[in-house]
Structure formats: structure tokens, C-alpha cells
Inverse folding.
């Protein structure tokens, strides 16, 4: 009886040791400092500032988020994409100096591995929740001159600097 108990305990200890040594995704931590400087246009009365905030997801954890702003800020969530941002406004007529926001945070990022050797394109159309990201919008055009240049072979074999000069 005592031998069975000892063997059972030893087996559990070996199992837990194997789990503790099992390689998980590699992770790295980073401390970020993000500074935004806004120069209000001459003659403006109010400067309204929106600043994107980092988000925790399955591949990164955000902690120690601190914002330093010249005015009280509120946080909001974008209804279309779900991104979080800080918003504040200041009296631009009162102060001609640039408006500065400083954000600091720690990000712990998990390695994301994809087996490209066995990867296949998903069958059929992309899921509906992905479709909006594949469409042009006023900030990220994918039509017009961009589409025309991307269809030309010379565009794809030039340096980034040369290609961007065409735009």
C-alpha cells in the first residue's frame, strides 16, 4: 500500500514537472512612452484631441497605463471597430503653445506562431466580421491610383521610397 502511494505521488510530481517545463509561447515585455504634440491652427478657439489607447487581447497584455494631459480626459469606445481612445479638448485661443499628451504603459506580448507550410486559404468568402476591413475608406484607400500602381509589375519591384514618390 505504501509503495503504491509513493509511486502515485512520484507519478504526479513527474507529471507536474513536465507541465511546468512544457514550452509555451515565448513572451517579451516592453515599456512604451508615447508622446502626442498637437499645434492648434492659428485662430482656432478649441482643440479637440482623440488618442488611441492600447488594448489587451489574446497576444498582448497592457498594464500600468498612465496618461498625462493638459485637461481632463474621457475614455470612449469606437462603435464601429471597438477601439478605445482618450478624448479631451482645450481652449486653443488661450494658449498658443503646442498641446502635449504623454502616455506610458507596459506591454507583455506573446509570440504568435503560424505553420505556414501547412497553411491553406479558407474556403469561400471571408467571414462577415472581416469584410469591413477589406474595403476602402477615406483614410485607407485601396482603389484609384493605389490600385492602378499595385497592378503594375514595376511597382512591386521598386524600393519603398521610389514607389511612395509615385503617389
Amino acid at each position: 500500500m505504501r509503495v503504491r502511494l509513493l509511486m502515485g505521488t512520484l507519478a504526479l510530481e513527474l507529471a507536474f514537472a513536465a507541465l511546468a517545463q512544457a514550452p509555451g509561447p515565448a513572451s517579451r515585455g516592453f515599456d512604451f512612452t508615447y508622446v502626442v504634440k498637437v499645434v492648434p491652427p492659428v485662430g482656432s478657439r478649441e482643440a479637440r484631441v482623440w488618442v488611441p489607447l492600447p488594448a489587451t487581447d489574446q497576444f498582448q497584455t497592457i498594464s500600468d497605463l498612465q496618461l498625462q494631459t493638459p485637461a481632463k480626459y474621457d475614455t470612449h469606445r469606437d462603435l464601429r471597430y471597438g477601439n478605445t481612445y482618450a478624448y479631451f479638448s482645450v481652449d486653443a485661443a488661450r494658449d498658443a503653445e503646442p498641446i502635449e499628451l504623454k502616455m506610458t504603459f507596459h506591454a507583455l506580448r506573446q509570440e504568435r506562431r503560424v505553420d505556414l507550410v501547412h497553411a491553406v486559404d479558407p474556403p469561400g468568402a471571408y467571414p462577415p466580421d472581416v469584410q469591413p476591413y477589406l474595403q476602402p475608406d477615406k483614410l485607407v484607400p485601396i482603389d484609384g491610383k493605389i490600385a492602378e500602381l499595385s497592378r503594375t509589375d514595376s511597382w512591386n519591384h521598386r524600393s519603398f521610397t521610389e514607389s511612395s514618390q509615385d503617389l
Notes: The first strand starts at residue 27 and ends at 38.
